[in-house]
Structure formats: C-alpha cells, structure tokens
Amino acid sequence: MFRSYWAVAATLALTLAACQDEPTDHAMPAPLALLPAAASAAPLSVSRHIALADDQTACVIDSYEFRVVCGRRDGEEVVALGREGDGPGEFRRLSLVARVSLGRVGVVDARLNRLTMFDATGDGVSAVAVPPMFFADGIREATVFGSEVDMTAYSPGDSILTRIYSELDINSGEVTWMRGNMNGIADTECGGLDKGVPRPTGGYVFWACRRELVFLDDRDADAATVVTSPAYREELPSERDVEAFAEGLTRLGGRMPMPRAAADPYVETFREDPKRWFNVPGALVFDSRDRLWVATTPDRDTFSYFEVWIGTEYAGSVRVRDRAMGFDLFQNTLAVLVERQPGPDGIALRGIDWYDIGDLDCRASESERGCRLRRRS
After folding, report:
1. DSSP 236
2. DSSP 160
3. Which of 32, 56, 123, 265 is the Cys-Cys partner for 119 at CB 3.0 to 4.6 Å?
4. Using an 8 Å Cβ cutoff, are 138 and 165 in contact?
5. Distances (CA, A) of 178 to 59, 72, 137, 147, 321
6. What is the Cα–Cα distance from 142 to 173, expressed in whole angstroms?
7. Cα–Cα dist 13/48, whole Å
C-alpha cells in the first residue's frame, strides 16, 4: 500500500515534466522590463496563490498559520482571515484564494471541502460545500472552476493524467458544468492537456505538455486549436528549481512525508529533464482587456517572465524581478507574489511587487509583435 501510494504521488509530480522538445529558432522581440511601482511583504508559505481584492489590496495564504492575510500596496496589513479549526471561518488546508468581486475574496479549503467568502475587511460572507477531490483553480464571476484527476482511467506509467473539468456555482456549490475525457480533442505533443481557465468570450484555454496552449472557442467543442509558444526555449532546472521540486515531493505525503531516499530518483530525473514552459499553478490569467497572461519558467532567480496573448496569437513578453510564485491582475494593476534572493540562512523571504500596467501596449501582428509602454501625453 505504501509503495503504491508513492508511485501514484511521484507520477502526479513528474507528469508535468514529460515530453522533451527541441527549442524554437524563431526570432522574438525582447521582453519588456517592467519596474515595480511599490513593494510589500508577504508571509512565508507553501501556497503560491495571490488575489487582488482591488487595485490596492492583495490577499495571500499563510499556510503555516491557517489563514489568509490581506495587505495594501503601501505595506499596511489590512486583516488576517481565519485560523486553524473546523468551524465557520476556520481552515485545515487552504488551497486557493481568489477574487470573487470587488473587495471580496473566496477561500477554498481542500480538507474541509468548503468555499468561504469574505469581504477583504474581514467580515465572513458565506460558506458552501464543494465536492471532495475537487481541485479549485480559480473563480470567475459566480463560478468556481477546477478539475479532479480521473483515477479510474489512471494506470502506473501514464505520462499524462486524465482530468474531469467542472464548474460550481459559488452560492450553492452545485455543479453547473462537467466534462471529462478531453485529451482526445487536441493534438498535443504528449497526447493530453492539463489545467485551464475560462476565456472571457466563452470557451476555455488550457496548458499542455511542455510548451503548448490549447484554445477552445466553446467549452463543449469537439475540436481545439493547439498553439506552441513561439518564445519557448529549452532550459534545464536550476538548483533552486530542483530543491523546490524535492520539497514539493516530501509535502505530497502530508503527515506521512515521503522519505528523501525514495524521492531521490525522481529528483534526479527532474534535474536532467528540460523544464516545462508554464509556471504552475495559476499560470494562466486574463486581464481586464481580455489579454491572456502566461507565467513561464525561464530563470526565476534574478527575473521572471510573462507572455501576453491576444486571442490565440502571441503578442510579446514582459519581465519582472525576482522569483515569481503567483500573480493576479485587476484593472491596471499586476501583483506578483515573489520569493526574494535567499539570505545567509538560506531562507528566501516572500514579497509582493506591484506593477502599473495601464500604459502597457502589446500587439500580435507580425509587423508589430511585442510589448511596449505607451507614452503619456
């Protein structure tokens, strides 16, 4: 039983590193370097999620204290939401924080199978049950979207997992849409697709394999458009990436940590395999202008990078500082949850960098592809 458990856990972790590819040789415009307009602190945490409640307030998960901390871009802490426990407003395993509406965030607890909504000022609004084994990926309008792994279709050695995608009503928890066995609708390099987000105009976009995006015009469509990122470049994991992967493997066991000796073979495989392009979870986010932002994995030491897509067309990339863990967009604000450079004790403190993107202009035409800042008159 123990050996079987870790075989499945390791397969889940290594699925994202499948399908080796050659780098593209397309000439791409250089990423636009963005400078933060403000910076604030964030607690150490296992979670990589961040939610902008508004353009001045960001909320992150403090996994060690079983709470969500919301703070302003000027560094002032607004409120801490929740504590450890099973009661209303309490948590056991926080797995997502996401904006529900202006000034309101939703928090998903994967152990209690519960979505709790709060005003960012600290008032609890409501709570609703979510299905067991449902991995919430985000909230859009009145819907929680996510997926679960179809274990009935799993067999040891699978290089891609089969997922069942679904949407839940945030007020009732009822399933409003569900679809499984979608791997066959897209001709991807590894034969499947992974997590996705709803498109503002309808449909979905998923990331797949090492470097592909899969666009559906309609969420129930039988065919999809598969696009390879033209900016992709092959890169091996850094030592910081390898250590983060090893720590992630040991956390898969919860209170029964995976022994490091058992993890080492998987860690060595990860070390020698080129990185996937997508910086998950939460790699795909739409901004208020319906542009798709894609968090990518190159570097993530001194700098981190985001692609910007318009429709199904790549429009350019931007660069931000430090190691991006998660990000969110609201109106003209980009907030990036980052790890700073490790200190002498080896601990990398966390922070939030705030970027003003109201003047960011990205174009997808071949003659004008790239991102630039518009000059203010």
Report:
1. P
2. S
3. 123
4. no
5. 29, 37, 14, 9, 38
6. 10
7. 16
